[in-house]
Amino acid sequence: MSLAEDRAREIALRYNYSEIRIPALERIELFARSTGETSDVVEKQMYSFSDRDESETVVALRPEGTPGVVRAYIEAGLDRSDPEQRLFYSGPVFRRERPQKGRYRQFYQFGVEVFGRTDPACDAEMLVMADEICKSLGITTRCEVNSIGDATCRPAFRAALIEWGRAHLAELCADCHNRIERNPLRLLDCKIDVKLAASAPSSLDYLCENCRVHFDSVRTLAAAAGVETMINPRLVRGLDYYTRTAFEFMAEGLGAQSTVIGGGRYDGLVEAMGGAAIAGIGFGMGVDRMAIALEAAGLVPDAKPDAMVIAMGTDALANVVAMVRELRRNNLRIETGSPERKLKPLLARAAKIGARFAVIVGDNELARGVVQLKDLGSGQQREVGIAGLADAIANKS
Ligand code: HAM
């Protein structure tokens, strides 16, 4: 487990989320119906193949976690029996993308989903939680937000984008030509002609009153809890299910792939997948990208052992395994030296791996209930009683 994942898990538990484990392999239709037929992820990036079962079911390695969580939520009947849920998950996801720094074909996501809440305080809490994960790791981020409207106001925005796209047909890239009718929102995401995309209509100009009030409220509530958001009117996210709030957290040191957390609201998804009309919102954190950001910021903790325990002699060997177990029970990080090697190379290795102490256990000393404790920093060595060894290593005595 990575530091970012550990931290995200701790924070999710404090925000009262429960863990859900979802399959890495699902029927392909699940992703086509949720992530979306017109998303790049489903169109180009899924690893899918026919199973050898009788009907040659086509399955896919999950390209994201949300669809599996929604499926499990509906299958368990929670949408009807107990709709309000906070769930988190983590694991590998797969996308056939062009690999580069921070972009891999198998990567790891930590994700959270909340069902049954439509209120802007929930969106704000989501932003605060994402911010909390980054802050607790020491990562500086920028939080960009947008609202892409709902079933009431989206059609007008969509129509405006199509009109704009048709007017700029000659200047648009080949991908965008396909997007015009199939998925016009993605025109805003054009990586090739960013300048042109900047002149496209903005969803914010088309929001209905309810969506506008919701969006303003999300930003105000997040700001009140210390999360300043920047509006990015071109932020539409690459997956088809989003409604209203969309957000991304960007970190430094990652080059082009700077988004470490991305998410948003998906109020129509549960119903579209056969469940009740229950709202949803969530985010996914790129665990690999967080690891790069931590490294770039020099925030990876030094994981050095507290001590290396070295047994010299037959009696020592018979006792050392139990002794080491006890030390580790005291929360000490302990390495052991191979009894097939001599003291000198073992001490050299202890120094190389950065152990603070070497504990040398000899037969004679053992008979007296003591060991030699060598401080590898100062080179000083002293005799320590076995009963007090853990405290001595922890510098308590
Ligand atoms: P996503 O933005 O596609 O959203 O992915 C979430 C995060 O996964 C990204 O912000 C990024 O950090 C990381 N990521 C994406 N692709 C790659 C890659 N090829 N290599 C390394 N890291 C990557 C989702 O997947 C949604 N399910 C999030 C969500 C949950 N929305 C609502 N609920």
Query: Percent helix among the residues?
Result: 25-40%
Instruction: Please give the CATH class of the largest domain.
Output: Alpha Beta
- Given the structure, what is the number of helices? 16
The CATH architecture designation of the largest domain is: 2-Layer Sandwich
Overall domain count: 2
Task: Report mean pLDDT, rounded to a whole number.
Answer: 95
Distance between the ends: 33 Å
Structural class: alpha+beta
Unreliable spans: none
Based on CA inertia axes, which overall geometry fits? elongated
Taking the sheet with the most strands, its summary is:
8 strands, mixed
Percentage beta strand? 15-25%
Oligomer: single chain
- The CATH superfamily of the largest domain is known as Bira Bifunctional Protein, Domain 2
Helix-strand blueprint:
Layout: H1 3-14, E1 18-19, E2 25-27, H2 28-36, H3 40-44, E3 48-50, E4 58-61, H4 66-75, H5 78-81, E5 85-94, E6 106-115, H6 120-137, E7 141-147, H7 154-167, H8 174-182, H9 194-198, H10 209-224, E8 229-231, E9 243-251, E10 259-265, H11 269-272, E11 280-286, H12 287-296, E12 307-312, H13 314-329, E13 334-336, H14 343-352, E14 357-362, H15 363-367, E15 370-375, E16 381-385, H16 389-393
Parallel strand pairs: 1-5, 7-8, 12-13, 12-14
Antiparallel strand pairs: 2-4, 3-4, 5-6, 6-11, 7-9, 9-10, 10-11, 14-15, 15-16
Helix pairs in contact: 1-6, 2-4, 6-10, 7-8
Bound molecules: histidyl-adenosine monophosphate.
